Amino acid sequence: MFQDTITLKKLVTDPDDPYGEKEVAEEIEIQNCRFTLRTVYSGTNNDRQVVSNASIVLMSTYTTPFIDFDDSYQGAKIVFNGREYTITTINRDIEPFSRKVYQYKLGVI
């Protein structure tokens, strides 16, 4: 079920740049996730817009490494099967008693 591997590319400030102006792409390979191609729309009738073209599910019990996707990952790039996608939505599912995140659902376009 969680057999897909993706590459996460996030722009971060270069630590060697004394002015903090240069950004470099930090790449992380994430294994054992679920990548599903499906288009999600928002709106009604002729006023519909594409929200995402695919969704990615990352579960703490399967996915390695399990990254804490905060709002800074909005706009980061995901590479799957040689195609690059942009993260548009980040949904967190939290266990009710321990308050720990057990899965993320990412919408990409």
UniProtKB/TrEMBL annotation:
It comes from the Bacteria. Pfam families: Minor_capsid_1. This is Minor capsid protein. It comes from Lactobacillus kitasatonis DSM 16761 = JCM 1039.
